From TrEMBL:
GO cellular component: cytosol
Entry keywords, A to Z: Iron, Iron storage, Lyase, Metal-binding, Oxidoreductase, Schiff base
PANTHER family: 4-HYDROXY-2-OXOGLUTARATE ALDOLASE, MITOCHONDRIAL, DIHYDRODIPICOLINATE SYNTHASE
Entry's family note: Belongs to the DapA family.
InterPro entries: Aldolase_TIM (IPR013785), DapA-like (IPR002220), Ferritin-like_diiron (IPR009040), Ferritin-like_SF (IPR009078), Ferritin_DPS_dom (IPR008331), Ferritin_prok (IPR041719), Schiff_base-form_aldolases_AS (IPR020625)
Protein name, entry field: 4-hydroxy-2-oxoglutarate aldolase, mitochondrial
Originating organism: Darwinula stevensoni
A Pfam family of this chain: DHDPS
Domain Ferritin-like diiron: 149-280
Molecular function, one GO term: 4-hydroxy-tetrahydrodipicolinate synthase activity
Bilayer-spanning residue ranges: none
Domain of life of the source: Eukaryota
Subunit field text: Homotetramer.
GO biological process, any: intracellular iron ion homeostasis
Length: 280
């Protein structure tokens, strides 16, 4: 049996703020377990506004905390200021955790701590004790360690290869959409135009992830996409085979991060794993 629920904002269908509220309302009503909200717009492509978080915290006693992983530091500060007294704000971003705790957050749910538990816990204790000199000394050490982890060429090369694959996917689905539209399949073309944009977003997430961790994303020459099909069956068979290829490469990436103990990248890739389950 589990003691609490950590629940991420709904993704893929990109709900508005009322949709996010109704999502968590349904969970809070269905379960008496304590619920920790998880706002991670970099993975879900939707940000839970401070007003929505505060509204949920006020309306449901079993919504007790949030793992706040928005890169917007000011949003976190506003949440700490506006939240109900007993509601707990936890950092969800290792790079911001020290500053957020010093600003009033109650702690962090960390990835980096899995690799450096002693140093990370000491940093958090200093931050909670309002000892910024000591906490930032450890933060700087940990940030250097995180950067060194990501300097592994094997993983960077594999992520850059995934950028090419996602870009090829976007161009491929765009070419398919054009073929479908010009051949009178409007519904199919709308689906494929949307799919092409999603694949482009997947590519951009990889680019930003690499650059934000002191790497350098490589934008390659993309393959010329196939743009002629005999019928819809051939088109959708091509879609399926391509998604199988993408899934295989992502799974290989996850295996690589596990072997290299690169937990930060492994955590990042979980979004892609979930996305590919839906794609196939």
């Amino acid at each position: 049996p589990f003691e609490a629920i950590l629940s991420v904002c709904p993704y893929y269908n990109k709900p508005n703020q009322e949709g996010i509220y109704q999502h968590f309302k349904s969970i809070a009503t269905a379960s008496s377990k304590p619920i920790i909200l998880y706002n991670v717009p970099g993975r879900t492509v939707v940000n839970m506004a401070v007003s929505t978080t505060v509204r949920l915290a006020q309306d449901f006693k079993n919504i007790v905390a949030i793992k706040e992983a928005s890169p917007d530091f000011v949003q976190c500060l506003e949440l700490i200021k506006e939240k109900p007294k007993e509601f707990v704000v936890l950092s969800g971003d290792d790079a911001l955790a020290n500053s957020q705790i010093l600003a009033g957050a109650s702690g962090v749910i960390s990835v980096l701590a899995q690799g450096f538990p002693k140093e990370f816990c000491q940093m958090v204790k200093h931050a909670l004790g309002r000892r910024p000199d000591e906490s930032y000394r450890l933060y700087n050490l940990l940030y250097t360690m995180e950067s060194l982890i990501f300097e592994e060429d094997k993983i960077k090369d594999a992520l850059n290869a995934q950028i090419k694959l996602e870009g090829d996917s976007s161009n491929g689905y765009l070419a398919m959409a054009v073929w479908a539209e010009t051949n009178g399949f409007e519904g199919v073309s709308n689906f494929l135009y949307s799919h092409a944009e999603e694949e482009r977003m997947h590519m951009l997430k990889l680019v930003k992830f690499i650059n934000e961790r002191n790497g350098e994303a490589k934008i390659p020459d993309f393959a010329k996409p196939k743009n002629k099909f005999t019928n819809l069956k051939e088109l959708f068979e091509s879609v399926f085979q391509h998604e199988v290829k993408v899934s295989k490469h992502i799974n290989e990436l996850v295996d690589m991060t596990l072997k290299e103990k690169d937990y930060s990248t492994m955590n990042f890739l979980q979004w892609y794993v979930s996305e590919q389950i839906e794609e196939e």
